[in-house]
Write a structure and sequence with these properties.
76 residues, flat, mainly beta, single chain, three-stranded antiparallel beta sheet, 0% helix
């Protein structure tokens, strides 16, 4: 069985309504701009840590068998 990624968004908060299972995404981040300055040697850093308080919300679907339990690992 395959699991297919449909979309992901960054938001400040996600809420799931327990009555109808509808998700609300509050404070969706539409654009992220990071200004980097080169060091003394004129090189940009390879890694940058950006402290932001956001959630990643993703929507996935099963492609074939809807009766089989789906498990997935996320790799970077």
């Amino acid at each position: 069985m395959n699991i297919k990624h449909i979309w992901s968004v960054l938001c400040r908060e996600s809420l799931i309504n327990k009555d109808d299972n509808v998700i609300s995404l509050n404070g969706v981040l539409e654009q992220l701009t990071v200004g980097l300055k080169p060091d003394r040697d004129g090189k940009l850093p390879e890694k940058v840590n950006i402290p932001i308080n956001y959630e990643i919300v993703s929507f996935w679907i099963k492609e074939v068998d809807y009766t089989e339990e789906a498990k997935a690992d996320i790799e970077k």
